[in-house]
Amino acid sequence: SFSDSPVILRILQNWAPRVSPYFDKEHYTYAGHQIVIQESIEYFGAVVWPGALALSQYLESNQEQFNLKDKKVLEIGAGTGLVSIVACILGAYVTATDLPEVLENLSYNISRNTQNMNIHKPEVRKLVWGEGLNEDFPVSTHHYDFILATDVVYHHTALDPLLATMEYFCKPGTVLLWANKFRFSTDYEFLEKLCNIFNTTILAEFPESNIKLLKATVREN
């Protein structure tokens, strides 16, 4: 299924030098907008991981191939919200989701970076992988054009619920874009499981950062 060879890219250092005296803020520029992200050192999800930079950069430079304008986009494991903010700037209707303890910082970053812009207002919601999906996101009313996920696979045990969540939201017509740093054998095992369920293509690789960016779509029989 990997017929087209992936493009080889590097993550561009496109964040501005810190003008802010606070150690916990990072400044980025995507799609012509400066984005200020507040990180939180208490929570794993509240730091900008390299996969988020890779996917943000890719969405910005491949707007013709993946046109997000007026599309419904769900980000799972949104963390600091960088990818969701970029998707908003590119014109999407975004729902950014993560664990309850991450939502306050996520909401703060998203509202702060999208508030005075003429874009669809993003939504921030709790989503625990594999839990309460039918109740909280019923299929009849929640169909997404794109599912975005970055660095959701690391050394943790929630890989089966994560896969189940991807499967739940990936309907015919939905495109899953997943960027991840590959470090452990569990990362490759997850990739193998993904390939068994979906039509999967590696769109891009960032060898310096060990990142692969994959596109997955549901197999239609």
Automatic annotation (TrEMBL):
Gene3D superfamilies: Vaccinia Virus protein VP39
InterPro entries according to UniProt: Methyltransf_16 (IPR019410), SAM-dependent_MTases_sf (IPR029063)
Keywords: Methyltransferase, S-adenosyl-L-methionine, Transferase
BP term (GO), one: methylation
Coiled-coil residue spans: none
Pfam families: Methyltransf_16
Secretion signal span: none
Gene Ontology molecular function: methyltransferase activity
Domain of life where this protein originates: Eukaryota
PANTHER family: HEPATOCELLULAR CARCINOMA-ASSOCIATED ANTIGEN, PROTEIN-LYSINE METHYLTRANSFERASE METTL21C
Protein name: MT21C methyltransferase
